[in-house]
From TrEMBL:
Pfam families attached to this UniProt entry: Abhydrolase_6
Domain AB hydrolase-1: 53-195
Organism whose genome encodes this protein: Emericellopsis cladophorae
Signal peptide: none
Protein name: AB hydrolase-1 domain-containing protein
Upper classification of the organism: Eukaryota, Fungi, Dikarya, Ascomycota, Pezizomycotina
Amino acid sequence: MDTPRTPRDEAAEYIANPRFHQSVTLPARDDHKEMLISYAEYGCESDANNPTILFTPGMFGSRYVGMFMHAIAAKNKVRVLVPDRFGFGETKNVPLASRISAWTAVMPRFLEALGIKHVALLSHSAGTMYNLNLLWHHREILHPTRPMIFFLAPFVDVAHSKVPMVLALQKLPEASFAYWNKMASFFALKASVMFGFSSGLLAQFAGALSPGNGEPSAREANMKVIERDYGLGVDLQVELENAVARGLFAEETVGANHEALTCLKKGPDALWAEADDMAMLVKKVAARERETRVEGRAALRVGIFFAESDAMTGKAGQEYFQSCWTGQNGQYECSFNVRATTIDKSDHDSVLRAAEALVDVIESVAETGMQDGSIA
């Protein structure tokens, strides 16, 4: 008699999908040596006719973080690409000072190597700074007639959010973050803590002062929605959370140390590159969109999904980020089509797996494929 397969067995098989563990080598150029980028491809199979999302996770910039999008994206025939950022998986680390600028330069070449012309941009938490820079420097990677950029629990400068614990962490010496990834591994694998892969220990510490609303009942309700609509059983989802943690920390995660410093702006000036002043950057983007928009083409769609209680960004940070995109008295209405949504009973990390947000993003991108055949 065959031994019955357990949810843990199913999770191990699910996570071992070879499409989730790929790599591409970018040839050397004047500004960098040959570079290998490891990445995952979630959702539908590679096809030029399928619309594509480029997802940039938060502090733990690992391809594993996008695992929870796979079932939703597959049903909607959308492809989600999640490259490992510098210092994660097989992607080698780079100096702190060039982290965001180097990523901005490399991503168009990554997409080109995969034969992808256009994508919708999606980020969570600290991925905000990366995608804002991509938007400014490489607007051409967005769809020419239906451009989209989405933000899940966007992270902003603590100078605007005023989150007490983040302000306190900013005062610690840089050496305090030399083993940030090791501490995170302990909490995720040994301490039985519900760990936030996109904000890491920052959210754990910040949450101590400002508890979130990612309560178990909301988590379970979300899992039941995914089970009902996308066929992923609740028991399997629970085991996938554990499998994702094991897989992520079994690989290189040293990039998290630089990510923490980047989030806190501890190091050289202008670590966030163009996004160092988000309001000014969005103002420049708005002017460019207004000047280059062709009649009959859609304005840049900006989707923002806030957590009900965000221990990393806070209410002040959320208000600041939204105001960056709306401007004063609707001054950017001709440039952007902005929609901001607050996900009930969510916190900074649970937004990443909220079916309400993910379905909205993925179905919006899927519609572009129905209209003209592809966003790729």
